[in-house]
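I hope you will forgive my troubling you with a question about protein structure. The record follows directly beneath this note:
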Amino acid sequence: METEKKFNTFRNWELFEELPNGWKIDKSCGSPLHGFEFCTNGISILRGGKRALVRVVKKKVPTFKKIQPVAELKKVNQIQSNEEYFFPAKSVNELARKKFQEHMLKDISFDLMVCKIDGYDKREYIAELKNLINSIDLS
């Protein structure tokens, strides 16, 4: 049988340096002591099981240096210096407008369905939308 490393108690809970064999970390409640977590011997506390505190050593998260590939960076700089690059703004704007129109159409279709359910006049709703669009000042 392996010897369990007990070194003290805290509020009647035993403190362990390492998790004893057969014991499990208990995540059902928070620890009252920094650097420790509750553990149980695998039996429910209500059925006479034991609960103790075990020291938890947090693993240090490794840090990585960000390295830029120098050869790739040189290639990109050469391409940009030799050719002029134009952003396709017109195509992007057209796509954004079409997506917005699609979104509005879905929204209006939903509103028409609500009009049907609630018994409102669909034509009146469409007329209000037309008046709203026609009221936009284009000057």
User: Anything to note?
Assistant: The chain has a mean pLDDT of 81. The CA atoms of residues 26 and 49 lie 12 Å apart. The chain has two domains: 6-55, 88-139. The first strand starts at residue 6 and ends at 10.
